[in-house]
Design a protein that fits this description.
By secondary structure, this protein is an alpha/beta fold. It has a 3-stranded parallel beta sheet with strand order 1-2-3, covered by helices on one side. β2, α4 and β3 form a beta-alpha-beta unit. The radius of gyration is 13 Å and the shape is globular. 21% of the residues are buried. The mean pLDDT is 87.
Length: 98
């Protein structure tokens, strides 16, 4: 059985959502800034970033698991969040482009 349906619950139960909240309080992006979430999973943090900053900043997420990104894509419909399948060790972006 896949663990994917329990992923978001595990984020909550593990307290990881507290890290998301802390992360949101520590950043103050300017209009036009670009932000990359490495290992974005199902896109929970990206969705929270979009809720806070809207289309003022460009949001990107990478994760090596296509199933996770499938959920993230559904969560991010109608937003400016761009998602790619990739590992942190092999970023699919030109240097200094983000």
């Amino acid at each position: 059985m896949s663990w994917l349906p329990k992923y978001n619950l595990s984020i909550y139960l593990s307290g990881l959502f507290l890290m998301y909240r802390k992360s949101l309080s520590l950043i103050s992006p300017s209009p036009g800034d670009k932000l990359l979430d490495v290992g974005c999973g199902t896109g929970t943090l990206l969705k929270k970033l979009h809720a806070k900053y809207g289309n003022v900043i460009d949001l990107y997420g990478i994760d090596p698991d296509p199933k996770m990104l499938s959920v993230a894509r559904q969560k991010s419909k109608g937003t400016n969040i761009a998602l790619k399948i990739a590992y942190a060790s092999d970023l699919p972006f030109v240097s200094n482009s983000l």
